[in-house]
């Protein structure tokens, strides 16, 4: 192409390019390449038309300081980023124009974009990708960025280069595979996954290479490769896979865990499922955990080690939470998962701090967290004969009376009162006083359809439905007293909170009055128990 400079900027660029053509020493090459920077991206096309081949060769020329290869890589990255920014500005500018100018605007944008893009000229260099992948013998985030950018621009060209490798196990592409295997670098792993599954022929050719190396790869790429290839999936038996999972990863995304369970369903019925869930990172949104409610019910027996880990996770001190698109923050699904695991734990083995946290969460603003906490307590009573305290009954009754709650969540509180009646007569007295707080079997369907409903909680309704409330003949006066008590003291904190309050000398009189009233409530509740019973 014949190009004649006209403007002062073009003439200055022409002088720089002439110097670059004559440059031979490393220092002069580096200096002049830096002088090209001000003309990027406006003159990308002209620069690359003249020097794409030279840039390709310079990629592999490296002294003890990695030059001029390092400067060449930096220049190409600058071209890519400047072009992407300019393209974004062109597109945003076109949106502000009138509809009648849309067609003309699109043509102008395309023309300008073609002059700015660094991709086409470098795509035409036969050794460009060979040289880039040659640089991956050692970790190089900049080279990974360039490869990914070119793949994003035109996946077909990159895919065709990979397919052109006659013996891929001996080719340059192996450098990326070895890099992922040796460093577990997440950026390199993500790129390897994208390139590997970009075409059926590629994953087929790579499968014999991948299978012996699977245990050396990060978990995320193994899952993606198993999804893409039946041969890879079948090469990893469930027993080996489960053992490898427990040893290899520190943390997992919920999508990773969902995929793990999908490939090896047997894991869901073992303690390993609980361990995986405890290793989960805070989910980005509540929708990421909703698959749990669709799973089969589990009957897990957790070791003390796992129970201790679960108890500790109920107070996430060093966990960073982010805003979420479908809930208050990633804290909500994070806590839901921990409570789900806690529901399999024998409360006798759970720390008092975790139990107190759980009880506070029954009134959490998040419906998912509150529902999880209530289900956990119900399961503890039904499975482990957990002793609920009167203050918890009062709290549940007060929340259950809130008609603004979603019906399904309110019904869950009704279930809690019904079940807690097996441990506290005060719960049965409350239900006798207010029939609107009673659980009815027809409410079950609304509860189990919710995404917050635990799979193993759904199996408990046969037992729950057998809990029947007998009639009271002499409870009217007692119920009136309880109602007055609840009106005056709407929501009681648990014992540790009462202890904190007792330390404040200004509240001594109030606490004494509260204790007297609670003792009177217990006395009257005991009297009510003589006239009523719960049949299980």
Overview in brief:
This protein has 30 helices and two strands. The chain is an all-alpha fold and 536 residues long.
Strand order of the largest sheet: 1-2
Q: What Rg do the Cα atoms give?
A: 33 Å
Low-confidence stretches: 472-476, 488-508, 524-536
- First and last CA, distance: 91 Å
Q: Assess the beta-strand content as a share of residues.
A: under 5%
The biggest sheet amounts to:
2 strands, antiparallel
- Estimated structural class: mainly alpha
Q: Shape from CA axes?
A: elongated
- Helical content, roughly? 55-70%
Keywords: Coiled coil
InterPro entries: ARM-type_fold (IPR016024)
What does this protein structure show overall?
This protein has 536 residues and is mainly α. The chain has a domain at 1-96 and 105-125. It is built from 30 helices and 2 strands. The protein has a two-stranded antiparallel sheet with strand order 1-2. The model is unreliable at 472-476, 488-508 and 524-536 (pLDDT under 50).
